[in-house]
């Protein structure tokens, strides 16, 4: 048919929302007569439900009253996740015919790519509310249904799921879309208010002062002076996008307004429109920490550093990959100190070093007497310690799969339930993870959850090994200065620095730092160190080639040389290497055993 190559019905063709959606459905390769439909097995569904507990808890009271309203229309309320997967169906389904009951039950996937034009899938595709009635549905098998859906937005600006009302198309649905929109507005309002952290500012705005303190309020949340969250009403009305959260400052949004508590509604002009606003200061004032001057990354440009900071400020999960010792933790600590999370702690967890049986209590904490041997005072756990700060997950690739599920849930719901507790506690933190493993390969092998992989790797950064850093000589001199070389009036000759800059450094900065500590411990005040001060393996030109199992072999050699320099005195060698004596005993025993 000319002008209508997709053979759309006149009703669909006349409505751009529908014709676009039908075109997409056809492009997905769907057939209107298709009778099979995507559905999740109960085990996978249980897993997905567990990771959306917060969404369900938040929506439950609003949905309960909504489902009572739609009973007379023989309709049900459906809650889906952001992929269109039905998580819960509320209301009486008995009045529906069997096919509809089956199709709307939890576990069904109502994405547009799975079922063509339908309210849940199309609302997700256009990120807006919509109603799809009878023959407007793409699949013939759904054409007895009426559905109205609204995407739900979490305070961090992400689409978290969809709220939908579905029922027989034969009933009148004059108010249904308005009801579902009102419920979604209420959920998004409660979500912002309930996840407010004591260190955050809350701004509420509305063109009419009497509407303040109602679900119609526009809500904005600031941490320090950074905009970090808001409800959809505010973001739409003020033209803000999720990408601006963590970037936009109070001053950029309201240039003429001081960031001061305002209790009695005051007028305010924004984008040519008059609003009234209140500004509630944080309940717990964070210790004002002045950010240290500019972030310097020795291996890249200042712009790269600024980019990473912006991402961290926006709450984006960073995944840092790179060889051992190249500074993954060091850079994470620097980012934390410069970020909006700096008033909270930097909490590092080595996922490979904690015994599997202890990781759970270590991460999630426990109630007094939660298990035999538990401290009688309980333990808050690392995740709660990181509240307001940065949680650094080192060697994330080694986290046991069972714990990956719990970690994912915490990252999605931003709350933690200590062992033995019945109530969960809200937490707010940024996540940086590090690994020297190939995480994608672990996902392919089935030892790392794919959903956690994407959640933790919202932005991935690969640190180059030290041998590839530009300006290595300058870095070596800086490290020497930081270790106190200049203070002790001990200099490094240019020839020595050049030799070190040419080394391959399989153990990266850790190896370089250990060597410089040894040189410093052995040198006399006022001396200038030449290449002959270097241990033999560093003296020879060309520089030593990287060896298999690099770090361990290098460490063993360095330990042996240092011990020899101090005539076998373990205390002095340990001091020179900057490690505990017990480490040297342990390493000595290991290398000696080979
Ligand atoms: N840019 C840097 N400036 C100064 N010191 C650094 C720098 N990068 C790393 N270091 C130091 O090198 C050592 C190793 O760094 P770090 O622990 O961050 O490496 P890593 O990549 O996390 O190692 P691993 O993979 O073994 O955990 C630390 O003592 C750290 O302080």
Automatic annotation (TrEMBL):
Species in which this protein is naturally found: Pseudenterobacter timonensis
Domain of life: Bacteria
Pfam families linked: AAA_lid_14, GAF, HTH_8, Sigma54_activat
InterPro entries the UniProt entry points to: AAA+_ATPase, AAA_lid_NorR, GAF, GAF-like_dom_sf, Homeodomain-like_sf, HTH_Fis, P-loop_NTPase, Sigma_54_int
Gene3D superfamilies: 1.10.8.60, 3.30.450.40, Homeodomain-like (1.10.10.60), P-loop containing nucleotide triphosphate hydrolases (3.40.50.300)
Keyword Cell membrane: no
CDD domains reported in the protein's UniProt record: AAA (cd00009)
Phylogenetic placement of the source organism: Bacteria, Pseudomonadati, Pseudomonadota, Gammaproteobacteria, Enterobacterales
Name under which the protein is recorded: Sigma-54-dependent Fis family transcriptional regulator
Record domain Sigma-54 factor interaction: where: 306-521
Keywords: ATP-binding, DNA-binding, Nucleotide-binding, Transcription, Transcription regulation
